[in-house]
Amino acid sequence: MTSFIKMLGLIAALASPVASHAETLAMPETEVILTVSGAISHSNIDGTAQFDMQMLTDLDGTAFETTTIWTDGVQVFEGVALDVLMDQLGVTEGTILATAINDYTVEIPVSDAVEGGPMVAYKVNGDTMSVRDKGPLWVVYPYDGNADYRSEVIYARSIWQLDRMEIVE
């Protein structure tokens, strides 16, 4: 009997990481502003991860000040760090195909999702961004904080009016 109980304990211990790997995300309660599909480990609707604004703001937020080539002066961006978002989805490698409302798509390597790196911004200077003002979501890098982020390659990855991502391996 003791061996049987030990066996059950071992099975439970081995099953635990598998169960957490298959976690589901909370469900959006308002308009979905970001849908992530593809090679993700955590989802909420039909194998995708769909986020409303509250779900994004509930993730560990970040903020930084930077200038951009598209705006005048220093701007304060707030959002969810790309590494935090990828962690939430269980993504560790591959490429992010980030697509805007108008179907424009850019490729962002998951390796860009590092601490102190880019964010999916949902506010600029304390205000949510309208579609007219590059919103509701904009992938922004801390351009002023790292000279490597001031290149045509990185500027090309800085997609605004973001509404979906696909993770490909």
From TrEMBL:
Residues 1-22 form the signal peptide. Pfam families: Oxidored_molyb. The keyword Signal applies. InterPro entries: OxRdtase_Mopterin-bd_dom, OxRdtase_Mopterin-bd_sf. Residues 73-142 form the Oxidoreductase molybdopterin-binding domain. Keywords: Signal. This is Molybdopterin-dependent oxidoreductase.
